[in-house]
Amino acid sequence: MDQRWFDPGFGSWVRMMGAEAGVEVGAMPGSTDVRWRIGSRDGGREVRAVGNPGDLCVTSRRRDANIEYMPDGRLSWTASSRLLAGGTRGEARAHHLDPPRSPWSAADLRYRDLPSADPGSGAAPLLLLHGFAGSAADWDGVAPLLAHDRRVLAYDHRGHGDSDKFGERSAYTFDHLSADLESFTERVLPEPFDLLGHSMGGVLALRYTLAHPDRVRSLVLMDTAAEPTSTPVQRVLSRGLNAVVGRWGLKPLLTLLKPLTRAPADASPEDLARRERQSRALAGMDRAAFVGCAQALGTYPSLVGRLAEVSCPVTVVVGEHDRRLRGAAEQFAAGIPGARLRVIAGAKHSPQTERPQDWLAAVRGHLAR
Q1: H helix or E strand, kind and range, residue 206
Q2: Domains of the chain
Q3: Transmembrane ranges (predicted)?
Q4: Staple partner for 332: which of 28, 95, 261, 316, CB 3.0–4.6 Å?
Q5: pLDDT tens readout for residues 207-220
């Protein structure tokens, strides 16, 4: 029998009687729901159970687990593994001393880290947060050009790119995405930094800035909003689309979008590369992330009433033809003290790829403040 402390956020595995098996346990943020997974290193099954006092149990052909709330509030788990030879059982037991948190609350994030070409510049690092259905690759055309005098970082949100994919929509709330951002900055960016968020990434950037004003040196909000902007018709269409993706995956969506996103005959090589990158990013998404993040974008609590709390320098960037978010950009500029508004001529929702030189000029101007 092997006993060890449960590692919150990442789970704990034990070796029992020569067979490797284990359990991951945690509570969903803001609730009493308990999540736990039982399995082996190369596979297993996943179960969700409600965290009421008492035993919670799942049984498979060869593996069992029991979860119990102790009288002092600790969480206890017992994992067992039946071996084929003679049905021998091994058992391990551990106690969690603190309130458990979800293994889904801190994802393994794939990120890009560009060192400054001038380490002696003294400039703060810049963290770039991509939008819904994007990836860190969204910044490939501009990040190296910003790294001439500062460190530039960008990561794939959970369910996007090469970061962790959980296969369950409840893992894709703004609370989880924000927890990832907090975990990432604690580990990788201990010093104050400049923060830029695009679309969904902008919502996360604003939330983080409000929660950690001492950590953010300056903020760029790009083609984003302080509250959901979808109309009732758009919400109905979104629910229908989410139902399709949730049941059949992203392939039908990609087929539907193909004729709508086909490049014009005179498209530039840069435009062709951008479209190909966007298609790859969407195709590589966890279908649960598509549904979960889309739902989060349509339901997150308004932050309009807190805009005046933002005290760092802020620049609001928006594409000239991003009709849905032009009004939101003006709302930011009016509500955040000292905020500057930069409209990128000719751009739609992604100015960094549609008008990169104009976008770079706006961001460099901001960073020089």
Answers
A1: helix 200-211
A2: 12-102 (no CATH), 111-367 (3.40.50.1820)
A3: none
A4: 316
A5: 999 999 999 999 99
